[in-house]
Design brief:
Blueprint: H1 3-17, H2 22-30, H3 40-58, H4 67-80, H5 87-107, H6 109-126, E1 143-145, H7 147-163, H8 169-176, H9 179-190, H10 197-210, H11 213-223, E2 237-241, E3 247-251, H12 258-280, H13 288-309, H14 321-348, H15 356-372, H16 379-387, H17 408-412, H18 416-425, H19 429-443, H20 451-467, H21 487-494, H22 504-512, H23 518-533, H24 537-541, H25 543-553, H26 559-575, H27 577-589, H28 597-618, H29 626-636, H30 642-659, H31 667-680, H32 684-701, H33 705-708, H34 713-726, H35 730-751
Antiparallel strand pairs: 1-3, 2-3
Helix pairs in contact: 1-2, 3-5, 4-5, 4-6, 5-6, 5-7, 6-7, 6-8, 7-10, 9-10, 9-12, 11-13, 12-14, 13-14, 13-15, 15-16, 15-18, 18-19, 19-20, 22-23, 23-26, 25-26, 26-27, 26-28, 27-28, 27-29, 28-30, 29-30, 30-32, 31-32, 31-34, 32-35, 34-35
GO biological process, one term: protein secretion
Protein name: TNG6 protein
Family: Belongs to the Tango6 family.
Length: about 775
Amino acid sequence: APAWLRRLCGHLLSERLLRPGGVQAVVRGVLEGTDGGAGAEAAALDWRKCDAVGKILAACPQQCLSLEDYYRQVCPQILALLHIQDKVAARQFQRVATTTLLTMAREQPQLAERHLLQPLLAPLRRCSEAAELALEDLAAGAVLVPEAELGSCVEDVFKVYVVGNDSSSLLLGSLQSVLGVVFSLYSFAKHNVSYLRSPSQDILLWFLEKAEREQSLAVLEGLARLSSHVPTLHPQCQLRVGSEGGAAVVVGETISDEDEALYRKISSEQCHVESLVELLSHCQKSGLAGDFFIHCLKELTQVAAEDEAAPNPAGEPGGSLLELEQHQARQGRKLLVLQLVAALCEGVSDTVFTDIVQVQEFLAAVLHRACVRPAQGPGAAAEACQGVSPCHTDASAPLLPTQLKPGDFEVLKRLVPLLEELSRSYPDPLTQELASDLRIAICTRGACSPGTVGAAAAAVLGRKGGTGAQSPAGDPGTTPSPPAPRHGERGREQSEPGASPAPAGLQELLLSAYDPQPPSRAAALRRLASLVTQREPEALRLQEKLLQVFLENLQHEDAFVYLSAIQGVALLSSEYPGRILPVLLAQYECPAQGTGDAVAAVTRMKLGEVLMRVTRALGDMVFQHREPLIRAFLRGARDPDSALRASSLSNLGELCQHLGFQLGSIIQEVTCCVTAIARTDPEAEVRRAAVHVVVLLLRGLSEKVTEVLQDVLRDLYRLLKHVATAERDAATVLHAQLALQELDAAMRRVLFPPQTLEKKIVVLP
């Protein structure tokens, strides 16, 4: 076109652009004739036109007096393009708005932030803790950000940031200021039904992917409430479910009850951590989850060191209130880090590390913790050394020397100073020797492994098993468990007279079941349990030996070990209940001689868990073992240990629920025991368990309550009414009310059966 025509058209467009509604009019005029079709040519044309319109809108016309005035007039209209309701034109208008905004942010960042980004993020910033809110003038429940406004804001942020996909420092910085509120919204939507969950998650993941790694870690630390890098939702604001599937921000109610406030605080923190772990589960391929996990381990070491260095003002007279508050803040931070590490271990630990560098940093963090706090025992250092040892479990398989590449040893060399310090200063000589061997293996690039270091590590572990505690639990009074023999002794042990021979693989598992390291021991126990599940002939042939191994590991203090042993005993008992249940019942009723009362009670509670797992596995077949099981639990309900009494009653209630109408005459004994305990036991948790037995009994019998319990129903009703009116423990009263509700529902079904219409055909003679 001629120059005069271009100037005239530009002048007319600029005049129309500066009028009210001019931006939308210009966009419609330029995009007229394009429909955003799916064809490649139409899509290319559409993209070019949208890009051209965006550049036109971003350029200030000559007629405008100042750039500030132009942005003040045009920017609100550009944001309005994101809300076009016409489905046909909405995609093109949104593309134009996004292109214009990104162009303005690149060319005039200060003006773009003032007139575009701040209004765009205003609803989210309004309820942030960084905002100065005068909430005293607002009543509880007052709406601070309506549902429609909040939903529109989140969708606009998704369109501009995620769809626009421009990771400039201006956009990342502006978005970081509201990420805390977006994360609160994501956590809220995760535990409720809301369409805002997906866009909130995409916004968070986009930022974590596009930002620098240090910035992403700082933001994650802020989202975990370990720092103030990210302003979160205002403490006096709360999210409420909207009527249209969204959410609204309202002024929260002031809770006067301290217990209720503490419960809500703990529940909120738990939901917060769960949401963060789920968010990190989407960041494992990029390595961000692994880096944050290592960051939390380092933070845990630092917090523990600070906690030891700082005195406890509660235990010292004359401590100031400020020191007490600082101590409580440190303890709260320590608990939060522990909770976060535990949740990360459970949620993303399977594939959290993506390369050898992250594995090295993880091991360095663990070894550093062992160097800083050697008084905590050999566990941390031994487990870390085991991670780079050639004789270890599958948990650290990526570090096997046979799987390492030549370049990986350069990374592992960073562990050498820590291993050297452990070999010199660690209090446990066995760990010192293992650390020294590993340092040599790394420095020689595996030339001394697996043969030399493997034999040395096996000897260390063998001596440790032979000279360690007398039982897996480390209690001198318990039955001694056989130590893990050295490699040179295994053939001699297998050839001893009277020992039943076993295949090499099974023999290795039996030896590993007494490994001094809990991870190796638990892995061996779970592998033995899986052999029982698969009905491996050799494993079933050695069922008595397996039962002995599982029962001895029940006494171990590590939860992962004894839970694996519980699983193994339960699987073995469900396969051979006639042989193994009598053994378990005998040990449950009569603990081993010489054990302390506390150890015996704990072991019996673990056996009770085994018996209940067997009961669930047997199903209706548990009837033939009814009397010995109930008799064992009734005896446990009279034990001096209150925890064992409560555990036995809980098991008794679940057994009664399984038996249902098969209880028979033994119901009299159960009723008498439960009634006496609920009325006279001094411990609230035991009385609570006794009433819970009645709840489970009524729930299991359902409509057969009046038939099975006809002789004791009145006594149970009087007991429940007595507990509901005279009991001081609130939880016990709640159990009694639940039982009364079950009884009321059962009696109503009997007295007022549902009316049904039946069709009868009678043939007259």
